Amino acid sequence: MKQVFSITSLLLYATAFSQVIIGNATGSVPAGQKNSVLLEFALGQNKGIILPYIRTLPSGGGLVEGTFILDARDATKAKVKYYNGVTGMQSSDGWFDLSNGNTADISAAMAMQPTSATVSEDSAAKVIIGAASTSTDGVLVLESETKAMVLPMVNSTDDVTDPAPGMMVYINKEDAKRLAVFNGSAWTFWKAP
Q1: Which of 48, 58, 106, 142 lies in disulfide reach of 78, CB 3.0 to 4.6 Å?
Q2: Euclidean distance between CA atoms 29 and 76, whole angstroms
C-alpha cells in the first residue's frame, strides 16, 4: 500500500508542479537553477538511472529524438543506444551506439525480465512528467520545451556497486566530467570536446 501511495504522490506532484526530485527533497541542482529542471536526483547516492531493456527497437510516429534504451535484441550483444533520427555514416536507422562498439552478454539479466508472453503489457501505460499527456511512446516521458533532466551524479563509476545493464550516470569530478553508460560488461564514457 505504501508503494502505491508513493507512486501516486509522485505522479500527482509531477503533474502539479512539473519538477521531481528523486532521493531527497534537495536534489543536485543549486536552488537558483531549479526552474530549468524537470527531473533530478539526490547527491551522494552512487546510483544511476536504468534504461529500458528493449527486445524490439521502437519505431513509428511515437518515437522521438532523445530516446535512450538498452538494445537487447540479441542478449549476447547488448548496447546502450539513443535515437537522434539522423541517418548516414554513423547510423542507418537513426540509433546511435553509446557503447562505442562494445557489447555485453546480458542473457542472465534478460531471463529475469518479463516478456509479452508472460505478462500482459498495456502499451499506453507511462509516466509523464511536465505535461498532462503526450503522444510520445515511452515508459517515462519528460515533456518540456524549457526544462531538462539532470542525471544521477557520481564521482567515479567505481563508486557504483554492482551496476545494472543499461545504467547511466554523470561523473561530476574535477577534470573528469562526462556521461557514463554501462552496457552490462563495461562502462563507456562520453565527454564534450
Answers
A1: 106
A2: 38
Phi and psi of 168, rounded to 5°?
-125, 140
φ/ψ (deg, to 5) at 60: 95, -170
Q: Is 179 exposed, middle or buried (0-12, 13-18, 19+ CB in 10 A)?
A: middle
C-alpha cell at 74: 540479441
Tell me the backbone φ, ψ of residue 7, rounded to 5 degrees: -65, -45
> In the structure grid, which three cell numbers stand for residue 132, read together?
498532462
Q: Is 31 left (phi over 0), alpha (psi -120 to 50) or beta?
A: alpha
Q: Give pTM, 2 decimals.
A: 0.82
Beta pairing class for 67-71 and 79-83: antiparallel
In this structure, are residues 151 and 29 in contact, taking their beta carbons and an 8 Å threshold?
no
Report the alpha-carbon distance of residue 150 to residue 152 in Å, rounded: 7
Looking from the CA of 53 toward its CB, the CA atoms found within 13 Å total 24
Residue appearing with cell numbers 563495461: 186
